[in-house]
Amino acid sequence: ANYGPNPICKGCLSCSKDNGCIRCQHKLFFFLRREGMRQYGECLHSCPSGYYGLRTPDMNRCSRCRIENCDSCFSRDFCTKCKTGFYSHRGRCFRGCPAGFAALEELMECVEGCEVGQWSEWGTCSRNNKTCGFKWGLETRTRQIVKKPAKDTIQCPTIAESRRCKMAMRHCPGGRRPAKTKDKKKKKKNLMERAQKQHSIFLATDKTSQ
């Protein structure tokens, strides 16, 4: 029988004009629907969003999921699908995945992520593989991958980073100074050769004038 616009007595073993289904047929779930101040029973093949099917010897019922932001659940305390914008992790729903887990966007689930160790100490300040000869250089620190991610699509965090640093020794011992000395000797030699050439020209001119 139908009461009002909705076939509220469909699947019922017993039904009330005011309260709808009171008892459901075998295998169907009793769901108490609320609309404003009114509530009535329905018999459904599967429970609506936010509820799960609880089978009992007396009568199967739809029970509300007690997990926050859950769209559908397997039991009272285990969510199988979270609401839009939330990630599912071990039967719970999160805005962001817990530490050590990464978000799998296509499934909106949290899976085991990439675990990395602690950062090492900053390395020696260097530039062009030299620790002297420049005012500024770079120092680097690293960390190791302790556990690879469960999915290849999940990237590991950065395992090496560098920063600008000031070198302790700007001038290399025995490095540039000998080069400067060599340049001075070369300049001195060139001056001597030029002086000798000018002296030869002067002598030749003097003989001609005589």
Automatic annotation (TrEMBL):
Subcellular location: Secreted
CDD domains named in the record: FU
Ranges where the R-spondin Fu-CRD domain occurs: 9-110
Signal sequence extent: none
Biased composition (Basic residues): 173-189
One Gene Ontology term from the biological process aspect of the record: Wnt signaling pathway
Keywords, in A-Z order: Developmental protein, Disulfide bond, Glycoprotein, Heparin-binding, Secreted, Sensory transduction, Signal, Wnt signaling pathway
Domain of life of the organism encoding this protein: Eukaryota
Region listing for Disordered, in residue ranges: 173-210
One cellular component (GO) term of this entry: extracellular region
GO molecular function: heparin binding
InterPro entries named among the record's database cross-references: Furin_repeat, Growth_fac_rcpt_cys_sf, R-spondin, Rspo_Fu-CRD_dom, TSP1_rpt, TSP1_rpt_sf
Pfam families for this protein: Furin-like_2 (PF15913)
Family: Belongs to the R-spondin family.
The protein's name in its UniProt record: R-spondin-2
Source species: Sylvia borin
